[in-house]
Amino acid sequence: MASTAGGYASIEEVRQLKTLVDDVVTGLRSQQELLRIRGMSLPPGTIQNAQRLLTQIEALEATLTEDERELAQLRTIGATSAMLNSSLDLDAVLSGAMDEVINLTEAERGFLLLINPVTGELEFRLVRNAEHESASPADAYQVSTTILNEVFATGAPLLTDNAFRDPRMQDSETIAQFSLRSVLAVPLQYKDRIIGAVYVDNRLKSGVFTDRELTLLRAFANQVAVAIENARLFADVQATLADITEINELIENVFASIGSGVITTDAEDRILTYNQAASDILRRAPDTTLGRPLLDVLPPMSDDFEAQLQAVREQDQRLTIEAQPEMPGYGPVVLSMKLSPLKDANQKIEGVAMVLDDLTAEREREQVLNVVRRYLPPGMVDNIHEISKLALGGERRDVTCLFAEVCPLSSFEAGLSAPELMERLNVYMTRATDAVYRANGLIDKYNGTEIMVLFNTQLNPQQDHAHYAIEAALYLRRALVSLYADFDMPPDEHFFRIGLHSGVATLGNVGSSKRRNFTAIGDTINLAKRLQENARSGQIIMSEDTLRHAQRWGGLPDGVRLVERESILAKGRQQRTPIFEVFES
Question: Full-prediction pTM beyond 0.90?
């Protein structure tokens, strides 16, 4: 039967035709009764044929109704697929899709249950009723665990048209308690893994679900399983992306805050990364360097620098280079470069990583300090920040002071010019200085042919300072005796004179706010000088105070022999000072 549109008859047209044929059958029955009264009749089989046609039309109506219902279900599956693929709001899509499933299957309730991937427990993701509303929490527990356990165990769907009387469900307390009738459950299966189930039921009617509803729900479950896994993967990707973003931000912050310049290159030595410190050191902004060859960004380097880069990149070497290139527009600089291979996750070398430091100011400062050390004691230079904390004045400390005359000018051969005399004196002072430094002494000053040495200052703190002072005196004796021999002086004639004394002195800065000098003053210093002045050539004299301190702290140096000499009355003192001469056994 063709429709007016040229296609197949619609269900509405069939229903209209059914009504017409039904009217015809009714009319024929009436006409047959009138004709019978008049002794007449309809042609044989007229009413039977019309009735048969009505029956066929009714069958066609039923078939079209079923087809239309199946078509609506297929359309729902298609619409659900489109919704699942077009929206990131999975819960909203699943709610709408579940409402359509409930409508098409004539279910009373629908449930979507998922297995928690962490705990393995079954959780209700979605609970809907026939009114398209979320069911009450109590409804979530009115499902048959017997049916769900069967579905999870077998991986196959389960349909019962009257669960209350189904022999398979006789042991289900939920079915018995709530008189469940039609129940349909389908597993949510992704690849070979069951991740949950879709469960619909009708507690009032039996025989609601057929194989057609089973097919519909299975197709729905397949789509939902894929959508849920995609949603989980998307959530994992988002979480991973968030972690990566956070790590990248942290790396960028660390990268930007590093005091050293950091540059990385690819296998062709093109710059990949370039932090702010590198920009400050090389005076080149990042936007002018990324992607450019490294040698174009660095100042002119030595001829072998390119070969060194190649060795790092191709031979897996790590190099530390100190270069002194000319920075265009800024002059010479001193750069420290640490080069390492840049490797990927598989330890394949992909380029070079460079850590860059500008040592220009540091090298200039070292040069200045090297010059200053020639004029000031090294301890004073290296610890200048310590004595800078002392105000003009100072502090009292227990110290040992050593005065030494290395060689009187009268012992030098006659006829030396002033420059020659100064050169000879410097040789003596160099030997004496080395000997003092060997015993950790601090040279306070050079005065002609004499030196003043301090032990236990703020710059060379020593609890056993008397012990170190005696050692310094012995080192001086050996160094000067050796030097006398170098100058062909008489071997038995020694010219040095050394005096030592221990006690309290005032140590600190003297001078002005613009020019200061660190020194020590007091009776202890004066007495040490007097002992040196009272010593004869070749003598080392120390006070009894120095001996007592050495005996208490550190002891006398090995091989030392003492001879007590007659006490002396030093200039400016009323009491005589017991003294001891120091020998080496």
Answer: no
